[in-house]
């Protein structure tokens, strides 16, 4: 009798403690997220977790290709490369977040003059925020529309992944600018990300005239970009254009310690076709559709910018070089000169590796009507 009472008390206590934890948790959610609609949604998510398990988004099904174990030396390869080879053939993943009417629907998508397609990882919230209010702000300029999408996968696992997915959902509710697929957003999956975007474009935004494809840590002078694209002689996006910082006469890096290591098991040939550095390049809608078409018959290579070059080569098209695309850095004449002098950035169209706060400041500075730049400025003869 006594023992039973103790047991009941124990159960009751556990119940009370659980309640307290749940209530506190809800309070905490309230603090971070003042919008009641979203709170309801989050609570619904929480209440549908199986209690004993880590929360998981629905997993996509694509079986590993076990025949890669037969490749010579497979077992000696680094883990991420083994992983790449096992899942190289997987090209369809569920879309977790969409912006179906980003371009006003497929038939109206020709109204989008420049679609900014920015590769971002879920955790890069600060970068996305600053881009939204600076160079990637959706707007009408010189009579044409600029639109923006961030392309992402998922990172981390368990509760952390759930939290990051929730972040992206909140952002998408507010800004309608995120495409997210359910795949591991790793460096070696960047090509997959590009292919998934091109597939989305074919369905939802097939007639966008031009695209900027780039990283979320670039500074892009989108004013100059529009002017440059409008200056294209008889190309309204229906002809070939692919331009950026061109890289030629290089091949796979064979040092296992490199981030870009591509062993023979992944690509046998020692040469890459000419391509544009993936930090940022401009292309026409025509060329984007052509690349997508070619991608169906080219096995995925983990380096996404090289892969674009392979698709171009197969289509018989060449990338070109644009002087204003400085993904390899900007030439600054002397150490005494401020490398963040806005005069350099007013003339270029794209520069790689900017911290969010620097993007914010530079965006303001290049628009300053009182900015005075000398003739000796080396970038003033930029090709625009
Ligand atoms: C590996 O190679 C062996 C011998 O050629 C073959 O019998 C086997 O089916 C292969 N394994 C896979 C998973 O393809
Ligand atoms: C995603 O890929 C990276 C790099 O290959 C790996 O370290 C990480 O464990 C993977 N994450 C998941 C959840 O599989
Ligand atoms: C878009 O255009 C196609 C072909 O002209 C037409 O069949 C379709 O109904 C249109 N869709 C919308 C939403 O207007
Ligand atoms: C790419 O993503 C898929 C799906 O999440 C995953 O199975 C695979 O391991 C990833 N590949 C790499 C190289 O991270
Ligand atoms: C893709 O290219 C093939 C030729 O390789 C062509 O027959 C087909 O029409 C193209 N498809 C699209 C959607 O452009």
UniProtKB/TrEMBL annotation:
InterPro entries: Glyco_trans_31 (IPR002659). It is a single-pass type II membrane protein. Its main location: Golgi. It is an enzyme of class 2 (transferase). It is found in: Golgi apparatus membrane. Keywords: Glycoprotein, Glycosyltransferase, Golgi apparatus, Membrane, Signal-anchor, Transferase, Transmembrane, Transmembrane helix. Its EC number is 2.4.1.-. Pathway: Protein modification. The keyword Glycoprotein applies. One of its GO terms (molecular function) is N-acetyl-beta-D-glucosaminide beta-(1,3)-galactosyltransferase activity. One of its GO terms (cellular component) is Golgi membrane. One of its GO terms (biological process) is protein O-linked glycosylation via N-acetyl-galactosamine. Belongs to the glycosyltransferase 31 family. This is Hexosyltransferase. It comes from Danionella cerebrum.
């Amino acid at each position: 009798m006594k023992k039973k009472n103790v047991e009941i008390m124990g159960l009751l206590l556990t119940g009370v403690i659980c309640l307290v934890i749940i209530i506190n948790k809800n309070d905490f959610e309230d603090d971070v997220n003042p919008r009641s609609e979203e709170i309801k949604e989050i609570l619904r998510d929480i209440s549908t977790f199986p209690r004993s398990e880590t929360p998981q988004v629905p997993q996509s099904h694509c079986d590993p290709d076990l025949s890669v174990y037969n490749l010579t030396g497979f077992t000696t390869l680094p883990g991420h490369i083994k992983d790449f080879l096992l899942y190289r053939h997987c090209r369809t993943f569920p879309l977790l977040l969409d912006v179906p009417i980003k371009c006003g629907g497929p038939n109206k998508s020709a109204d989008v003059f420049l679609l900014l397609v920015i590769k971002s990882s879920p955790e890069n919230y600060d970068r996305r925020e600053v881009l939204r209010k600076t160079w990637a702000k959706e707007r009408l300029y010189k009579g044409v529309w600029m639109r923006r999408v961030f392309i992402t996968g998922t990172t981390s696992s368990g509760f952390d992944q759930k939290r990051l997915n929730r972040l992206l959902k909140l952002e998408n509710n507010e800004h309608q600018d995120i495409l997210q697929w359910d795949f591991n957003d790793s460096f070696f999956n960047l090509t997959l990300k590009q292919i998934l975007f091109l597939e989305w474009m074919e369905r939802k935004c097939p007639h966008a005239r031009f695209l900027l494809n780039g990283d979320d840590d670039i500074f892009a002078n989108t004013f100059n970009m529009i002017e440059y694209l409008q200056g294209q002689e008889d190309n309204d996006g229906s002809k070939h254009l692919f331009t950026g910082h061109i890289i030629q006469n290089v091949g796979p890096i064979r040092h296992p310690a490199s981030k870009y290591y591509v062993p023979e098991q992944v690509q046998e040939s020692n040469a890459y076709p000419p391509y544009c550095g993936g930090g940022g390049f401009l292309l026409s809608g025509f060329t984007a559709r052509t690349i997508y078409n070619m991608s169906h018959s080219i096995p995925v290579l983990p380096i996404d910018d090289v892969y674009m070059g392979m698709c171009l080569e197969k289509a018989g098209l060449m990338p070109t070089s644009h002087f204003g695309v400085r993904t390899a850095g900007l030439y600054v004449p002397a150490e005494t000169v401020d490398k963040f002098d806005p005069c350099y950035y007013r003339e270029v169209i794209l520069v790689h590796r900017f911290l969010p706060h620097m993007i914010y400041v530079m965006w303001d500075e290049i628009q300053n009507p009182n900015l005075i730049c000398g003739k000796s400025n080396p970038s003033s003869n930029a090709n625009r």
